[in-house]
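I have been asked to look over a protein record a colleague put together. Alongside the sequence sits a line of tokens, each denoting a local backbone shape. I have pasted the whole thing underneath without changing anything:
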Amino acid sequence: MRKNNLPNLISSCLSHDVFEESPPILLDIGASGDTYSYWNALMPFSHCIAFEADDRESSSLDAANDSWKKLTVVRALATSESVDNLNFNLTQFPYCSSTLDPDSEALSEWDFASLFKVDGRVSMKAVNLSSALAEAGVDRIDWFKTDSQGIDLRLFASLKDAIRRKIIVADFEPGIIDAYVGEDKLHHLMAYMEHEPFWIHSMNVKGPKRILKEDIPAQADCINSLMRKQKPSPGWCEISYFNSMRSESPELRELLLGCIFATLLEQHGFVLRIARRAKNFFEEEVFDEFINHSASQLL
């Protein structure tokens, strides 16, 4: 099957009876901005639970409502503990807003420090993830995605074992440098995930520039141009984990989603592993279709 037939394969698979009463559950924490591109093909068949506490950046959620099979928007902070009133820092750049205080001293060495300037603080309702799932009427998460500005790991770890260890894909955006006081960093996340049934399928390191206008010689022309030419340094990381899919008694639903997600993420070798294993448990022609598609992509 050629790549241009992929949408048909995905749609056909997601139309399987197994998803009629139990659609894919996608959890998006810090859901402002455009829809996650990998989810475009999943939207008409999936239930998305989206947390967005900052109303300044929530209009895109409302616009995407009709694109989902079901969309549950939680207008509250996602936390490991439910709290009626929790301080939330509204920063100059909305995507840097956090329940944690910016580490102003450490940030002062970097060119993007002004983005973390706190314009105001508000007291907001904070909701425990497990409570939010229960209220939404779901008992699982298939794709976990969070950009919570410093608390990614504690949110993931707060989930019950039965939910957390069955997640198929988990996306995080932890920091590398000091940006927030007491934040969960990349090395904390990686140490924790060593003991979980996941493997890293992608990692994209990004970062700011360690250059300040006041350090550039006064006689230099085009200060802004010089700053743009400075090489960036590692500051944070977009890291994604895939479940190892080693259950001794796998469900048809999880194997189908494993093939779908791995195909979307272009992990074709893992698609072959999942699909070939699935054929030992279920007689479903769709697994042969996934095998043929991934083999063609590798060729």
In short: Strands lie at 25-29, 47-51, 70-74, 77-79, 83-91, 118-128, 143-146, 169-172, 198-206, 236-243.
